Amino acid sequence: DAKTTQPPSMDCAEGRAANLPCNHSTISGNEYVYWYRQIHSQGPQYIIHGLKNNETNEMASLIITEDRKSSTLILPHATLRDTAVYYCIANAGGTSYGKLTFGQGTILTVHP
Amino acid sequence: GAVVSQHPSWVICKSGTSVKIECRSLDFQATTMFWYRQFPKQSLMLMATSNEGSKATYEQGVEKDKFLINHASLTLSTLTVTSAHPEDSSFYICSANSGGGNTGELFFGEGSRLTVL
Which of A40, A100, A106 is the best residue to mutate to test the B interface, defined by the most B CB atoms within 10 Å of its own CB? Predict the structure, then answer.
């Protein structure tokens, strides 16, 4: 998996958009960008993933730059329950699918 | 949505004893499950890949004789920590693919916290 770099922590006000950046400058053409989050003492939860195009689901939006060297996860209206560690992971799937390399992630704190 | 469940959620045992942790896919079949370990204030580290009907494959540095993995059915994988010691105290998490392709969502269990006294 390509190495990903994320800021160690971020703050966000409740109700505002949370924009979490991720750098993956060495990503390969066949590697997807995945985002998971982990709320304290729980297993990780899938958020979204994408290859080249921007993606949106009921939880978040994923914006991938045209050169694919970075991406941004957007939580459009953050709530207190979105406080968690957010992990950005590059994975090619196939034989490596499921073998996720978790970095240190970004601790997002949503405050009232 | 697909659910992965682990049992027990937490366990305390004495040093030298063995502990078994179960990982079940509740509403789908999983030919492959993955076991991770997470120490306090650290990230998740992949330990091994559990393959239904065959031997597990272990990541470098993980002792296969200490962490026994059995994947006897398409819905159950077990991790047994043998002769546990305090340094094995950790949060153990499993994950599984629901089979909807090999690039989609992975489902994680709630985790099992092991404390070895």
Answer: A100
Confidence bin at B99 (pLDDT 50/70/90)? low
- SS3 at position A8: coil
Strand partners, B34: B49, B95
Chain B partners of A41 at a C-beta cutoff of 8 Å?
91, 111, 113
pLDDT attached to residue B6: 97
* In contact, A100 and A34? CB cutoff 8 Å: yes
Q: Which of A15, A51, A11 is nearest to A33 (CA)?
A: A51
- Which residues share a beta bridge with A75? A18
pLDDT confidence of B104, banded at 50, 70, 90? confident
Contact B111 A41 (CB under 8 A): yes
A29 Cα to chain B: minimum distance (Å)? 14
Closest CA to B40 of B107, B110, B113: B113
What is the predicted pLDDT for the residue at B100?
55
Residue B88 — φ and ψ, nearest 5°? -85, -5
pLDDT digits (tens, 9 = 90+) for A97-106: 788 999 999 9
Q: Check if the beta carbon of residue A110 is closer than 8 Å to that of residue A12.
A: yes
A38 CB neighbours in chain B (<8 A) are 44
For residue B108, the cross-strand partners are B95
Please state the rounded mean pLDDT for residues B20-26. 96
